[in-house]
Amino acid sequence: MNPYTKIALTVIRLLGAGFLLIGGMNLGLYWIKIRHGQAHFQIWRCLYLSLPIVIGLGLLVKSSALARRLTQDFDEE
Questions:
Q1: Smallest Cα–Cα separation from 4: which of 48, 50, 70, 63?
Q2: What is the pLDDT of residue 2?
Q3: For a 10 Å CB count at each end of the chain, is N or C smaller?
Q4: Per-residue pLDDT for 64 more than 70?
Q5: 9, 10, 18: which is closest to 64 by C-alpha?
Q6: Considering only CA atoms, which of 20, 72, 26 is closest in space to residue 45?
């Protein structure tokens, strides 16, 4: 595997893990607010707060294809 592909793959996976972490923290804090009675449960707010989780999962699933595409674009120039 090309070293540039490995670096791109690592960066994309780190971004995906970061999105998962942020989304989990968002939902966790919202759950704590609901449990303490400071907010009411709203499904649309939960869906909105879970968007980073969906983005992170998408990045992790497609990371190898994205890394290959990025390094092919740089190799052509």
A1: 70
A2: 85
A3: C
A4: yes
A5: 9
A6: 26
- The pTM for the full model equals 0.85
Give every CB contact of residue 53 below 8 A, 6+ residues apart in sequence. 19, 20, 23, 24, 27
Per-residue pLDDT of 15-60, as tens digits, reads 999 999 999 999 999 999 999 988 888 999 999 999 999 999 999 9
Tell me if residue 62 falls in helix, strand or coil.
coil
Question: What is residue 38's three-state secondary structure?
Answer: coil
Q: What are the Cα distances from residue 16, in Å, to 6, 13, 19, 26?
A: 15, 5, 5, 15
How many other CB atoms are there within 10 angstroms of residue 69's CB atom? 13
